[in-house]
Structures are given as structure tokens and as C-alpha cells.
Amino acid sequence: MQLTKKEIFFTGLALLAMFFGAGNLIFPPNLGQQAGEHLWPAILGFIITGVGLPLMGITAVAKVGGDLEYLANRVHPIFSKVITTVVVLSIGPLLAIPRTAATTYEVAIVPFLGNASDLSLAIMSFVYFTIVLLFVLRGSKIVDDVGKVLTPFLIIFLAIVIIKGILYPQGTIGTAQFELPFSKGFLEGYNTMDALASVIFGMVIVNALRAKGITDKKVIEKATIWSGIIAAIGLSSIYMGLAYIGATTGSNFTGDNPGQMLSYITTTLLGPLGKIVIAIAMSLACLTTAIGLVACCGNFFSRLSNYRISYNRVCIITVLVSLLLANMGLARILEISVPLLVTVYPIIIVLVILALCHNLFKGKRMVYITTIIGTSAVVLTGLVEMIAAKIGIDFQMTNSLLAMIPWHDQGLGWVIPALLTAIFGLLISPKTKQQI
Asked: What one-character DSSP code corresponds to residue 125?
């Protein structure tokens, strides 16, 4: 059975909507404002991590016919369980899902209320997650629901904001607020969490295609990759548009909250109507992402329990935990996300790159093992340093060692160790043609 071009297109739109959530809306305008005259190097870095890495993740998943757990098994089964659980919890109930609800509240609800309150956040979160659960419990129909119903509305509302902002800029592009714009954009792309989600979302797409009766692995692989390309084109276009209007309209914004900045931009561009437009766009963006993430949690933890816990039950538990954590508020959730992302992201990036280069080093397990060990050693040391600094402890020796690593000050200190340990793994690998 073959998929039609129309079916692949709508599958790509569904994937776009799953990726496009809270961070995808609030971070590009904020980056554009801060990058100023260095807008394009910054947005290039953002697109590499915010679009390129997710596309690579989708491609890697499509080629192995599974998800992150399949990829990580190439290192070790225990590592696979641990890293997959950490990633699913990160993009699930402990961080990303609550963030979608908190962002929706900040951007779509608070402007109409005038001020925020714990009660209004609690009520909104309950309604929000009830809607999410109704979609998620539809199981295999999620992709069709999201791709054909929610995504077109999301694109229309975003197009209104971006086109108006490009045609009628409300300010001028200012001076850059930071050095090294490419590195800043590269690291800012981590905040979308899409590279983490890609190695999980890929399985949602694969399962949806199988539910349509498609069994040919080549057809599924091709359709999944093309869906990823469609999503990547859409994301890149939206990011560039949002970053540009952030660099122009945002030059008049004096606040420091990314969510408030987005509200300011749309109100400036569209007047009172802007509040309604961004409220609808944000709600749709966050809902579609939350739906995909809750479904991923349901699939993963049900499988992890050998299906002793049903998909529906896991989804309900995920929604309840997310509902509780969403009430911490957006600022607190974003604060917690930074150390987690700078630790987990490099490991996933390296794992995806190794999977795509699998045949180049003949799939030797030792290459996977040494590279992941080298990368993990650097990022975990950095995590310890970050935590120590927050509680007032100064590890001078650790700081000095990390400072010696190239690009450490740019947040890319793991790159050279990953490369060197990959070469080391290749050199000490047994001379065999077998692949894992």
C-alpha cells in the first residue's frame, strides 16, 4: 500500500503542529530582539538546532523503524532505558507539557484578565488538559485530527501576524545585545526541545502509518522522512518571520518576559485584535504539541511496563502530573529547563549523528560507547559546575579543566571530546564486518 502525496502532506502538517509549541512561538521573537543587527547569524544557529536537528532525529528514527530507545540500545540496553526515560519525562510531564499550559495562560489568558492569579491559572489548566486528554484518547486518529483540523488554523493565524509585521514594521532593528550571535542562536534552539521530541515523535508518525495498514518498511521510512522535510520547511519559514518581527517591533519592547513580548508585538501590529489572534495561535500551538507529547508518554511508559499499564492510564497520569506542575508558572518552568537541556541535548545530538553515520564506521558498538561516554563526561561535569555555582560553591579545578576545552565558553565544549572519543572507539574496535 502506498500513501498519496496528499496524505504525506497532511502527515507533515501534523508533525509540524506537534513540534510547534510554546517555545517555538516565544523564543524566536525574543532572539530577534536581542540579536538586533546580527539577526541572521543568530537565526541560522537557531534553525540548525531548532529545525536541522529535529529533522535529523526524524530521519534517524525512520531508518531504524523505532524511536530513541532503539537508537540508544546501540550503546547499551540499560543506557537506553535511562536516557529514553529522562528524555520522555523532560518533554513530557516534568517540563515541556506543563510549559505548554503555562505559556498558553501567560500569552492567551492573562492579557484579557489584566493580571494573573493562582485560581485563574488552575481553572485554565484544568480546561486545557481536559481538551488535551479528549484528543489523546482517540489513539491512532491523533495524526489525522491534528494535521487536518488544528494545523491549518494555526498556520493561518501565524501568517496574519508575520505578514503584517514584515510589510509594516513598527520599529527599527537595534544593536545586538550579545556577542557570538551564531552560538547564542544555536543554544537558544535547545529551548524548543524539538530535537529531544523528534526521536519520540517519529514513532508517533510510524505508528500512525502502520495503523493505516501500511506494512512496507521502505514506504514508512520514505513517508516519515518526507513528513519531516515538510515540517522543517514550515518551521524554518515561521522562525525567520517571527525573529524578523521581533527584531523590528520588539525594539520598542522594554520588558524581559518572552511571553509578554509576543503579546506586545501582536497588539502593536494588529491593535486590540492582536490579543485575540495571538491567543488563538498560542492555544492551538500549545494544544497540538501537548497532544503529541502526552501520546508519546502513553506509548513509551505502556511499552516500558510490558503493557501491564495501559496507554490510556499512562496518558491520564501524565495529564494529572502536568496539571499540577503547570501551576508553578512559566518563569519557574523556564528556569528549571536550562540545566536539564544543556545536559541532555548534546547526548541526543551525538546519538542521532552516530545513527545517521552508522554505515560509515560499520556500525561498531565501541564507537557508540566511547562517544557517549566522552560526551556525557563533559556535560555532566558542566551540570555539576552549574549546580555548584547556584548554591555558592566554587570548584576551581573543574572550572579550569572545562575552560581548557575548545568552545566551552560558547556552550559547545562537548563537540571536540565527542569527536575524539569517536575516533578512539573506531581505533580500538574489533576488526569485524558485523554491525549492531
From this structure: H
Spell out the residues 6+ positions from residue 320 whose beta carbon is closer than 8 angstroms to its own: none
CB of 168 closer than 8 Å to CB of 266: no
Q: How far, in Å, CA of 252 to CA of 20, rounded?
A: 26
Query: Which of 238, 233, 237, 208 is CA-nearest to residue 223?
Result: 208
Q: What is d(CA 323, CA 343) in angstroms, rounded to the nearest whole number?
A: 25
CA distances (Å), 376 to each of 239, 285, 325, 339, 347, in order?
30, 33, 28, 14, 7
* Cβ(215)–Cβ(42) below 8 Å: no
What's the distance, CA 287 to chain centroid? 14
Instruction: Provide the angle, in degrees to the nearest 10, between the axes of the packed helices 194-211 and 217-248.
Output: 140
| Residue 148 CA: distances (Å) to CA of 109, 363, 387 | 26, 39, 44
Overall fold of domain 5-338: Amino acid/polyamine transporter I (1.20.1740)
Domain with CATH 1.20.1740.10 in the chain: 5-338
235 vs 47, 269, 283, 310, CA distance in Å? 8, 22, 17, 33
Report residues of the chain scoring pLDDT below 70. Answer: 1, 22, 65-66, 139-151, 250-251, 255-257, 330, 334, 389-403, 431-436
Q: And the C-alpha cell for 184?
A: 547564542
